[in-house]
Amino acid sequence: MLQEVPRTKAAPEVPLITATEAEAMARAVMNLFERWQLSDAEAREILGGLAARTWARWKAGEIGRIDRDLATRLSLLMGIHKGLRYLFSDPARGYEWISKPNSALGGKSPANIMAQGDMFSLARVRAYLDAERGGW
Fold first, then answer.
1. How far, in Å, CA of 92 to CA of 3, rounded?
2. Gap between the Cα atoms of 35 and 50, Å rounded
3. Domain limits of the chain?
4. Distance (Å, rounded) from C-alpha 80 to C-alpha 111?
């Protein structure tokens, strides 16, 4: 006898990333950008074209509301950081890797790729690190 499988709701009632988690990720990503030595312009572009005033507020410790797009970007960045920590036993080497040209990325640095501003560029860097860590 066939039995209908309950459908998954298109919009879950519980957010995948809570506001508290998103704010914590934002603070962590700001520290990460500092270690990666990114300019304010690069950081804002990686975060999806964050307004200069919003970025200034973040730097002053006023994170504010984080929408789903931005939370996803923050999550990808945390995954990139995690991948680098797995690949490099010396954290400084991982921080430096972000700004070095990479032949697998068409000769561009991961920072250049991520600063293209689209979500797919962040996902590309994350996928590359995941593949390096786990093998192709």
1. 55
2. 19
3. 19-134
4. 11
Alpha helix ranges (H) inside the chain:
19-35, 40-46, 52-59, 68-87, 91-97, 110-114, 119-134
End-to-end CA distance of the chain: 42
3-class SS at 33? helix
What is the pTM assigned to this prediction?
0.85
Residue with tokens 């991961």: 110
The model's pLDDT over 84-102, given as tens digits with 9 standing for 90+, comes to 999 999 999 999 999 999 9
Of the candidates 77, 88, 91, the residue with the CA atom closest to the CA atom of residue 121 = 77
Q: Cα–Cα distance between 56 and 52 in angstroms, integer?
A: 6
pLDDT in tens, 36-81: 999 999 999 999 999 999 999 999 999 989 998 999 999 999 999 9
